């Protein structure tokens, strides 16, 4: 999908993410994968094709929205001011299932997140003045099959043209250095559930997004990132004996760490 990120010579194992001169953070929207100050982030462009995106928007327009606090836990309720599609809205049941299929079928998502369980998908709406202050998502939650799941990774799928609203950035806190994310419609960002984050106030327009969580086959973020980079590198090699041997190594590591 996207391009591989360049290595930051100033920090081993990190990817470039900062703003000009280190003062103003730049929105993460150009490269497919970044690691900012130890924060691994995957950005996947065009998860939804134009026709799928239009179908999603049409369904969302018909949805019934309720106070978003109903899905917040603990202190997060105090800083959450938005609306969300009602969990029992029957008009969105088919849409949620279709989105799960489309996101799960994306090769970048599959190789990076390796999801084994999903949370129910939430359709969120932020109008002018609405925001979600700094918070950390719950480490455990109910999966869409009703069982308890460990929340390893969070994701946000943007549904609106970023020029149609001001503000509304997803702001990821990496060692107290904010990394704002505002993506084109149909694009998705995956980030560690344990990271402090927020949605900046919407200054004008309306911001719609689909959010959810994965339990990954790999509990360790370091192992997950290592295998992702390994698999991406092997895929770029010619189909020869060396590639076959590395594929065996990859399979052994995946089995050992899963």
Features:
alpha+beta, Jelly Rolls, 2 domains, 5 helices, 30% strand
Question: Can you put this structure into words, describing what you see?
Answer:
- The protein contains five helices and 18 strands.
- By secondary structure, it is an alpha+beta fold.
- Helices cover 25% and strands 30% of the residues.
- The model is unreliable at 1-25 (pLDDT under 50).
- It folds into two domains: 22-216, q2cbj1_9rhob like domain (Jelly Rolls, Sandwich), CATH 2.60.120; 221-257.
- The chain is globular.
- It has helices spanning 50-61, 93-105, 107-113, 221-235, 241-257; strands at residues 33-36, 39-44, 65-67, 80-81, 83-85, 115-118, 122-126, 131-135, 140-142, 148-150, 153-158, 166-167, 170-174, 177-181, 188-192, 197-199, 202-204, 207-216.
Short characterization:
By secondary structure, the protein is α+β, with helices and mostly antiparallel strands. The chain is 25% helix and 30% strand.
List the helices and strands and how they pair.
Layout: E1 33-36, E2 39-44, H1 50-61, E3 65-67, E4 80-81, E5 83-85, H2 93-105, H3 107-113, E6 115-118, E7 122-126, E8 131-135, E9 140-142, E10 148-150, E11 153-158, E12 166-167, E13 170-174, E14 177-181, E15 188-192, E16 197-199, E17 202-204, E18 207-216, H4 221-235, H5 241-257
Antiparallel strand pairs: 1-2, 2-15, 3-5, 4-8, 5-7, 6-18, 7-18, 8-16, 9-10, 11-15, 11-18, 12-17, 13-14, 13-16
């Amino acid at each position: 999908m996207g391009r591989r990120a360049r290595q930051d010579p100033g920090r081993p194992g990190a990817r470039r993410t900062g703003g000009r001169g280190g003062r103003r953070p730049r929105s993460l929207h150009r490269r497919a994968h970044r690691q900012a100050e130890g924060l691994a982030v995957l950005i996947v462009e065009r998860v939804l094709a134009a026709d799928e995106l239009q179908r999603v928007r049409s369904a969302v327009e018909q949805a019934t929205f309720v106070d978003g606090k109903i899905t917040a836990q603990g202190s997060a309720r105090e800083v959450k001011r938005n609306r969300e599609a009602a969990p029992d809205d029957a008009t969105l049941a088919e849409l949620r299932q279709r989105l799960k299929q489309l996101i799960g079928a994306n090769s970048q998502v599959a190789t990076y997140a390796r999801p084994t369980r999903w949370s129910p998908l939430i359709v969120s709406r932020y109008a002018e003045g609405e925001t979600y202050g700094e918070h950390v998502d719950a480490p455990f939650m109910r999966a869409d099959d009703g069982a308890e799941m460990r929340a390893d990774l969070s994701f946000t799928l943007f549904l609106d043209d970023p020029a149609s609203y001001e503000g509304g950035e997803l702001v990821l806190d990496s060692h107290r250095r904010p990394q704002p994310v505002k993506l084109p419609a149909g694009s998705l960002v995956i980030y560690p559930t344990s990271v402090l984050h927020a949605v900046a106030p919407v200054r004008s327009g309306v911001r719609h997004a689909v959010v959810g969580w994965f339990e990954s086959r790999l509990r360790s973020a370091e192992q997950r990132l290592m295998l992702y980079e390994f698999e991406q590198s092997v895929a770029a090699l010619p189909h020869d004996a060396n590639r076959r041997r590395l594929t065996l190594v990859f399979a052994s590591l995946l089995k050992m760490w899963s």
